[in-house]
Amino acid sequence: MARITVIGGTGYAGSHIVREAASRGHEVTSVSRSAPAEQVEGVRYTTGSVLDDGTLAAAAAESDVVVASVSPRGDMAGKVAPAYAQLAEAVKAKGTRLAVVGGAGSLLVAEGGPRLVDTDAFPADYKPEALEFAGILDDLREAPEDVDWFYLSPAVLFGAYAPGEATGSYRVGGDVVLTDEEGSSAISGADFATALLDEIAQPAHRRRRFTVAN
After folding, report:
1. Number of folded domains in the chain?
2. Sheet with 208-213, edge to edge strand ranges
3. pLDDT at 185
4. Which of 155, 153, 154 is nearest to 184 (CA)?
5. Using an 8 Å Cβ cutoff, are 109 and 119 in contact?
6. Whole domain around residue 204: which residue ranges?
7. List of E strands, 34-138
8. For 4-18, b where at least 16 C-beta lie within 10 A, e where not — what string?
9. Residue 3 near residue 179, CB atoms below 8 Å
10. pLDDT by residue (tens digit) across 123-165?
11. Paired strand residues for 157
12. Do 190 and 20 meet the contact criterion of CB atoms below 8 Å apart?
């Protein structure tokens, strides 16, 4: 059993991760700016922000793994990358593992190809968020060797707008977007959470980004 803190534990990805972690018997703490109306039994819910140094320090000190699941959009645009840099320093000091829920925009369309965010088809409205997520990955790759992290990019279709179904299975890739035979790239929230918790249980991507899709 691990002590897992999920920062952004009430968002789409975070809530699925909290639920999956609790179902596996982990000691789970969810951190969010407001408490959810519905809570998972056995989970400790606390209020706090990724922008608060004390929240980051406490998460790193009290956990075996900190899951960072905050999207750089709305009032958080431009603020998540520097906050994650501080979080990386905090986990380094405590020897805590860092799991970052990233974006799909930094995935390559093919080996040696451009990033999704750099293609003409990528929606302009989502580019700032995708670029901040990409910058977070770049920062982690340049972090000192004693920062133990992994960065999980979802498939292209991922979110409350495309919830999908829990299948209990997923495919794993590296830096290239995963598509099916019809060219679609999608993963359900439940299967994404399963993949992230599997990586926590059996680490296979230390200091690496990987992606998953159904």
Report:
1. 1
2. 44-47, 27-32, 3-7, 65-68, 97-101, 149-153, 208-213, 171-173
3. 97
4. 155
5. yes
6. 3-213
7. 44-47, 65-68, 97-101
8. bbbbbbbbbbbbbbb
9. no
10. 999 999 999 999 999 999 999 999 999 999 999 999 999 898 9
11. 186
12. yes
- This prediction's pTM: 0.96
C-alpha triplet 9, 5, 34: angle, nearest 5°: 35
- Looking up residue 119, the CATH number of its domain turns out to be 3.40.50.720
Determine whether 202 is exposed, middle or buried from the number of CB atoms within 10 Å of its CB (0-12, 13-18, 19+).
Answer: exposed
Instruction: Decide: 31 and 48 in contact? Cβ < 8 Å.
Output: yes
Q: Answer for the pair 172, 195: CB distance below 8 angstroms, yes or no.
A: yes
Per-residue pLDDT tens for 94-123? 999 999 999 999 999 999 989 999 999 999
> Angle formed by the axes of helices 189-201 and 12-23, to 10°?
50
Q: How many residues does the chain have?
A: 214
d(C-alpha 106, C-alpha 127), whole Å: 10
Place of tokens 């670029």: 131
pLDDT tens per residue, range 63-90: 999 999 999 999 999 999 999 999 999 9
User: How many Cα atoms within 13 Å fall on the side-chain side of residue 87?
Assistant: 32
